[in-house]
Amino acid sequence: ALHPLASDITSIVRKVAGIDVVIERVVENLPGLKQVWIYGDLARGVPSGSIDCILIGEELDAEYIAGLSGKVHKLVSKKVNTQVMKKINDEMVSGSLLVWELNMEE
């Protein structure tokens, strides 16, 4: 079970890090998206000039995602590094933070 504060902590991290902007843009336009994870400094709670994220889903449009990274960079002044995968592997989960999941916000 998740910690009772997990969703509060996640939403704080999302707002502070500028990840909300990334999620809003990505989720609307990628119907195959299932999860968004962050990793690296932000996932550890360390301020960072970049947002490292992993997009999990089927048939995600890599060109669209690359263009989106540039737009988000202009909005939040952070470089966005994106990896696209069908499934996150166990080694990556330990250093990552799930910031959005399909059906999580309904």
Per DSSP, the total helix count is 4
Low-confidence spans: none
Structural class: alpha+beta
Largest sheet: 4 strands, mixed
Compute the number of strand runs. 4
| Topology order in helix (H) and strand (E) letters | HHEEHEHE
SSE topology sketch:
Elements: H1 6-17, H2 19-29, E1 33-39, E2 50-57, H3 62-76, E3 79-85, H4 90-94, E4 96-101
Helix pairs in contact: 2-3
Concise summary:
41% of the residues lie in helices and 26% in strands.
Verbal overview:
The chain has 106 residues and is α+β, with helices and mostly antiparallel strands. Helices cover 41% and strands 26% of the residues. It has four helices and four strands. Strands 3-2-1-4 form a four-stranded mixed β-sheet. Helix 3 links the parallel strand 2 and strand 3. Helix 2 packs antiparallel against helix 3. The protein is globular, with a radius of gyration of 13 Å. The two termini are 19 Å apart. The mean pLDDT is 83.
